[in-house]
Input
Amino acid sequence: MTDHTKHLQQQILAACRDNSACRIEGGNSKAFIGNASNGELISTAQHSGIISYDASELVITARSGTPLSEIQQALAANNQQLAFEPPAFSEQATIGGSIACNLSGPARAYLGAARDFVLGCRLINGKGELLQFGGQVMKNVAGYDASRLMAGAYGTLGVLLEISLKVLPKPQSQITVKIPQVANDAILIINQLAAKNLPITASCYLDHHLTIRLNSSQQNTVAASQFICKQTGGRVIEDDKGFWQSIREQTHQFFDSSTPVARLSVPACSQLDLAGEQLIEWGGALRWLKTEQDIDSLRDEIKPIGGHVTAYKNFKPSAEYFQPLDSSNKLLQQRLKQAFDPAAILNPGRLYKEF
Amino acid sequence: MKTDVIKQTLLPALMDILPAESILSKAEDLHPYECDGLSAYRQTPLLVVLPDSIDQVQQIMRLCHQHKVAVIARGAGTGLSGGALPLADGVLLSLAKFKQILQIDPLARTARVQPGVRNLAISDACKPHGLYYAPDPSSQIACTIGGNVAENSGGVHCLKYGLTVHNILKLEIITVDGERLTVGSEALDSPGYDLLALMTGSEGMLGIIVEVTVKLLPIPEQAKVIMASFDDVYNAGNAVANIISAGIIPAGLEMMDKLAIKAAEDFIHADYPLDAEAILLCELDGSRLEVDEQIPHTISLLRSSGASDIQLAKDEAEREKFWQGRKSAFPAVGRMAPDYYCMDGTIPRRELANILKRIADLSADYQLPVANVFHAGDGNMHPLILYDANIEGELERTEEFGAKILEACVAAGGTITGEHGVGMEKIDQMCVQFQPAELAQFHAIKHAFDPDTLLNPGKAVPTLHRCAELGAMHVHNGKLPHPDLPRF
Output
């Protein structure tokens, strides 16, 4: 529970003076995401603690180094949760890292991404200035939405100090239904079901089965599961918590792989014919693919359908981790980076090798 | 005159891009464009152009960029903060002809639409598929989706369904120099920075929106509304907190105070209780089962929070009647005085009683009545100040009163604008909400997109100079607001 703002600011100001690169780290649980970035370690781990949490306002504000688990416990005590289900990947995971990486779990397609729940933040930009954007209220259109911009910026625009997030009530009840199906039909079914008034909060396709999670009141989840079973020939599975946790935390054996794992983000209903084992989440919008295919050729294949490919795991480090941008988009993003970090000292190269 | 020179240079070049009827240059044709929904601010534009293709927009932008002429984008002109207020030496770019719904994909639950499509027209077109577009600003019958994106519009259903930023997937934009850029995608994320978030609510300052892909949701199977009356505004505020703490997220949760109730009742006859200090309208929607479970729970929470009277709309007709009163609150209040001024501050809900007290005190000081309507679920307040613009100095007093309300919202941990945008109207209050370094960061963002400051210049983000001048007039608690600011 300490405020290390001053210390962090001094570190950035010093780096600014020396024009030396900074490597920003929270719990060091997501270092494998993004390109390698070298530089002096700036750790937010000690800058920790929940600053305010009022359950009736549905808002929590915490320092960036606050462990994700501490936040989740505080929320659970009031029957609330981070609805975007951030994966932790380690006990040390912090809220700052979760937001900087914009990581969202199985509920993403139904309840929203990390960025959707960001209400405001305090940060240090690359000039060492303390800035505050957004706030602690649901509706706020004063100024550009610079706080949401921090989600998925991987610390390249600023060192996050505090984050305010919208939280939601924890649903009373959960039921999971498993349906035997082939992949393309499974995508059709989950999208047809999502257009009905059903409390679907997650879907996963793996090993010729579509698994659907329902969260709501007890009566409502039971009724919805009965409807889905009847429509699809599925059955309710017991002890489902471990399954969804293994998908969220990627501890499921699918991810235990020495072959490269690509992350494909595509329009949900895309019918793709891909070689390699797949795990499909988010109603079809997120596809994990074990592949030996060259990352560039895979990207060339996915781009025309409006998707992009991340070299998620086990690819050679020479590959750009995230899909390269078109020239006009790249130029704009580079200029945006310069607007926050003119000396390019914050996590240089982590997002794109060029900036 | 400089403006005449610009006009004479631009006109022939525009004639090569657009048919004659799509270029307005005569005073009588320009007149309808001199203001948006904030009619207190007026300015005749240099020219109005009404393109109907993306290619035309690109050519117009290239031309204006070449001549360094400012461009102000405009949708339906329903904005309440003067965001589409023209400039005397700027081109007003109307997107009104971009009216087509290009594609509805019922399986993916998305619609691709042109920016001039009205908000409500999207839901109407999607209805046969059992789908709708959730954000519902009160002007939804007239306002356009392009304007909604520019303002990050909300509505009464934000608490449960989010703002515009949560309900769009992809934009096609034309940059200041006429390049076409896709922002976001039909996938759920895009590589690089979240430009979609940055564009949403950017008030036409970063690019021209020429196409929007929105998310669609299934139309709720059932929606029911409860009206609860309170003898004390404080209890009404507590009721809201108690409902949310109990794990219920209502689709809509609206509060009106005594003057707003009276205005609405006189106008609509919605059977509102005239003796109540406040009423809450609480709408629950979802599956039939879900709503049937939540109704008795919510009623008991309202009762234990001290509601003096609770009514559940017995049928769809009564539900609509309850809502009609709330939805007509602005025009209803408008009948009580020659003019009214609508504020848009947002506060953490726990501060409600304090802010209402502060507004009541200010109302007495300025001798201007205020009716309060309030999106209680998300803390967004709309105090309506009643005044008469024909009385000399009364508009100025009203603006000063409004500014003080917004400053109180900021002091309470809230914001100067929840959903109407900064535009021209609240530009001075931006100096209260943000520090110089933050404003400088906003300008740096703007510069990344628009280095010559040609897109809607002078709106949304004040110059440090403007704040410094304002600071000289406004000294709070004996402290100069921006002591570290260079004066020039």
